[in-house]
Amino acid sequence: MKDWLKDLPKVELHLHIEGSLEPELMFALAERNGISLPYASVDEVRAAYDFNDLQSFLNLYYQGMAVLRTADDFHDLAIDYFRRAQAEGVVHVELSFDPQAHLSRGIGFDVQMEGLTRAMRHAEREWGLSTALIMSFLRDQPAEDALAVLEQAEPYLELIDAVGLDSAESGNPPSKFAEVFARAKSLGLPRVAHAGEEGPASYIREALNLLDVCRIDHGVRCLEDSDLVARLRDAQIPLTVCPLSNVRLKVVERIQDHPLPTLLEAGLKITLNSDDPAYFGGGVLDNYLVCEQAFGWDRPTFVSLARNAIEVAFMEEGRRQVLL
Ligand code: ES4
Ligand code: ZN
């Protein structure tokens, strides 16, 4: 089954590229940029990845990405991930990035875009790996800042496939970003948002009603609202679920307690994704494998999950037809 799951063509819809920064590359980039890290070794970094909740993770996530300075750094980060992803049978990656988290450190938008898009072109050429880029806004920062980033991004719209919403969810409802997402829509950008990870089911509702998103990232707390579940099912709104992430951030206590089987039984359009693979203990394949171990799903179930992601990915129709 492990080999079969590895060979199954998989699509990744929920990946924070900054969360793919492995400790080895963190050290290499720190040295290249003359930055000293608060860790003595790669093992010490990994030992620090013991989280209580989303915020305790985000603190280390923002600290870790401080080694990213130049376009080459962003390029090397993405290449390092694409190489691992294609080796585990991933055929399409939608990477999100957090421009505000770098702008606030003095790293220009152009620097970020140059590095990431160069890596994306390389992945297509070298591995036949297709990619899409999602520009995410930090929901724990003011909406005005997100609007300013969107303005900065306007010369690059051809290179951006969608906008997203991430970072600390509790207390930062989608309604805060209604104007920003309306502007993104008027620019022709598709929209996705994290909702119902740590936040309540009402945030998923808001993301649909006020941000007009076509996908929900996480969304596992939809089960607290049966009307919402019916709506998500009827409209077949995709949920990009990240099981290992949910365990590591204590959204669920153990993988056996994860609501994935219930979400599937409810007829929802579920996909499996890695979120922040360097921090949560594995990539897309590991997320498939942990589900196989915990839930004993058969091959047709995994085929249908993989197909769901192909169906809703931001990719050229010709490419989709080849994969379906
Ligand atoms: C994130 Cl797991 C998760 N949730 C919200 N924001 C994020 N940024 C990176 N990973
Ligand atoms: Zn996420």
TrEMBL record:
Its cofactor is Zn(2+). The record marks H218 as: Important for catalytic activity. Binds 1 zinc ion per subunit. CDD domains: ADA (cd01320). It comes from the Bacteria. Pfam families: A_deaminase. This is Adenine deaminase.
